[in-house]
Amino acid sequence: MAKNTLSYVCQNCGAAYNRWQGKCESCGEWNTLAEEDTSGSVPVSIRSKRKGRTFALESLAGKSPDAPRLSSGMTELDRVTGGGFVRGSVLLVGGDPGIGKSTLLTQATSMMARAGHRIVYISGEEAVAQVRLRAERLGLSDAPVQLAAETSVEDIVSTLSEGAVPRLIVIDSIQTMWTDTVESAPGTVTQVRASAQALIRFAKKTGAAIILVGHVTKDGQIAGPRVVEHMVDAVLSFEGEGSQQFRILRAVKNRFGPTDEIGVFEMTGLGLREVTNPSELFLSERDLGTPGTAVFAGIEGTRPVLVELQALVAPTSLGTPRRAVVGWDQSRLSMVLAVLEAHCGVKLSGHDVYLNVAGGLRINEPAADMAAAAALVSSLVNAQLPTDAVYFGEISLSGVIRPVAQTPARLKEAVKLGFKRAVLPESARGGDAGGDAGLSLNAINSLTTLVAEIAARGSRRGEQSAPAEKNATPARFRRGEG
User: Fold this and answer.
1) Does 98 carry a binding-site annotation?
2) To the nearest 10°, the Cα dihedral for 283, 288, 290, 291?
3) Does 96 appear as a known binding residue?
4) Are 73 and 115 in contact, with CB atoms under 8 Å apart?
5) 3-state DSSP call for residue 147?
6) Annotated binding residue 97
7) pLDDT tier for residue 482 given thresholds of 50, 70 and 90
8) Is tRNA-binding found in the keyword set (predicted)?
9) Among 342, 476, 442, 346, which Cα is nearest to 396's?
10) pLDDT at 74 over 60
11) Is 139 marked within a binding site?
12) Quick one: pLDDT band at residue 33, thresholds 50, 70, 90?
């Protein structure tokens, strides 16, 4: 008989150790090592020792047919996946508890089942009656989705192998699955890895597309070993704040499509509603005429998105001022603040700084630098920015405004929503940037010019904004003094 091999496996990264220790040396996490039996179920002495078979080698030249895709019936979901689900592909969907993962998959599978495809939904966390209640609440109880509550991978594979091969299989969730090939408890690293590997083999062999639902940790990362993310073909992240109705579906990894596309949904009483124009939704509750707000014209994949950046700069009595940001990179905010103080004379060392991206969207591109700087200076000097203007441009460490990609698409989206002006980098004025967009372009070469224009607006507000203006910009940037 094979001897049991016990080791301590990190539940965060999957690293194995022969003795327990408080900190994992691989990922740096504390108290994540758990004792598991890592021995295989089949002894090495009786394993098959067959010789490998030969296979044909092909050249790089030649035509390869496009992978056939299966549309989900939801435009936003197809946008993120690259046009639909590829046969034999495996997708991993992660998100916070209660964010709407099961609701999204229930709606998608119901639409595909109504289109005549065989769809199977395997629930490992909820009973069949609970899934039926959700479908009834969404008005999808009449969809011919085949449903089961099962956690054994061997039983699932055996059942799905009978009859016609399903076009799509949903496993909710992979942390609840277990296989007989390993002796660890469900949810451990060994079980998650082995269960995912068995399901991936079934998908590649039969051509069925499989969606695995994964839990997330406190940091927002998908729980379990990171090797599972490397095993699957695509990793989708379902993001959003529980207090807001907006939901963002983002592709973190995609072998068959882009990774910079997003799908926008709105959570309603009848489920998730697709948002075809996210810019209008993000700006629907915009507070006009308030200092410290600027509209950023961004790009998410191939889609232009307009979103409001809100900034608050307030005096502080603390020795170390607060720097809080939601929806943007913390280090990017620190860089913009450093450039404002070093090259523009904006003294922020005695102020708390808060920056927020309205609507729950997270911005990753550096083109938001100019909009963030405009909102910060506007809040500091208590100056209202033009309500019909959009901002975009990257700020370099020297204070120069650098050009960004896809300027025409940003301007067209601004015109569509009724904006009249655009503040953009100087190098973007030429070519087809402005063209027939119908906008009044304000091209800026350096950040000092933008600060001077905003500070001049603050000076017109009277004595109330005079102290902020003096603190915000030195004399060389004031209008009328050269």
Assistant:
1) yes
2) 70
3) yes
4) yes
5) strand
6) yes
7) very low
8) no
9) 342
10) yes
11) no
12) confident
